[in-house]
């Protein structure tokens, strides 16, 4: 289980990117590839722990899951895998030319921007 | 005082800090001509045993190896490897199930890298967690023993797909375990098409000559080629 480490890395990455003065993040958007080696449910669980006591506390974690995509040299096309093996679902050729699936990316954040108090 | 919600695009890898550190490590190791391998497998596959056999053979060939060994709690593996007389350091992860680039950097401190030709990193025995962490290695070597079942690659695609090379271990037990070697190779190719696979027995020495010849060859050519591993 390394999802807690991942969640902690995510929190410190967000904290490093946070504009000056922002104290509350409301949502975090992530992209998670099927080959990232990260279990979604475990990450969501650990997110609550890792955000505790930080500007991200209580924020929503939104995860977009990405399937594995390979480039098939026979079809000369990108193909989404249907099973676990790296075989083109159309022609059956094995291909290790990975085009998508390892993503473990922070996409964007939503935060409350304090308005300058008008006098 | 009211607040307005804002959206900020970031688009960064969650592990970008580890990746940066790993890149720095790789450059440093290359600058010293060190060729680095990261051994990953489930617990008990035979990482330490293969290393024990490998270190002695490399020294006999005039190559200067060093090793870092990750373990959750003990330094048993480092003690075993130290008998070879080669510089070895233990990385105790205090429960962490994988090594990170920062741990490698810390444990290389004080070592004169110019004295080494090849650095082995034995990761914590785990088929899931190490896959996300670049340690600055040139090659990630996944090991699979004949006693573990032929379908391990299918069950742990993230790790097997992230490997550059596979070593099948405990070949001497294949018959007793009725291991279907053809199926094992097929499954490795199904998850990592084109991956080079070695078969070894640290016990009988089977396959060791080919494995050592490969290491000696790689160590000679790899660090010399600048940006050889750049993606
Ligand atoms: N018969 C046989 N046994 C082996 C071989 N390689 C390793 N073993 C045995 O398998 C057991 C585990 O080997 P280790 O080298 O400690 O495995 P490991 O992958 O380093 O284990 P962890 O560090 O705990 O993940 C030991 O009892 C070894 O002696 C082999 O080639 N043949
Ligand atoms: Mg070991
Ligand atoms: Zn095809």
Features:
heterodimer; A: 119 residues; alpha+beta; hypothetical protein PF0899 fold; 3-stranded mixed beta sheet; 3-stranded antiparallel beta sheet; 2 helices; 23% helix; elongated; B: 231 residues; alpha/beta; Rossmann fold; 7-stranded parallel beta sheet; 8 strands; 35% helix; binds guanosine-5'-triphosphate; binds magnesium ion; binds zinc ion
Explained architecture:
The complex is a heterodimer of chains A (119) and B (231). Chain A is an alpha+beta fold and 119 residues long. Chain A has a domain of 76 residues: 2-Layer Sandwich (hypothetical protein PF0899 fold), CATH 3.30.2320.50. Helices cover 23% and strands 32% of the residues of chain A. In chain A, the strands form two sheets. A three-stranded mixed beta sheet of chain A has the order 2-1-6, covered by helices on one side. In chain A, strands 4-3-5 form a three-stranded antiparallel beta sheet, with no helix packed on it. In chain A, helix 1 crosses helix 2. Chain A is elongated, with a radius of gyration of 19 Å. The model of chain A has no long low-confidence stretch (mean pLDDT 94). Chain B has 231 residues and is of the alpha/beta class. Chain B has a single domain, classed as P-loop containing nucleotide triphosphate hydrolases (Rossmann fold, 3-Layer(aba) Sandwich). A seven-stranded parallel beta sheet of chain B has the order 4-3-5-2-6-7-8, sandwiched between helices. In chain B, strand 3, helix 3 and strand 4 form a beta-alpha-beta unit. The termini of chain B are far apart. The relative contact order of chain B is 0.18. Classes of the chains: A alpha+beta (119), B alpha/beta (231). The interface between A and B is large, with 40 and 39 residues. The complex binds guanosine-5'-triphosphate, magnesium ion and zinc ion. Magnesium ion (MG) binds next to helix 2 of chain B.
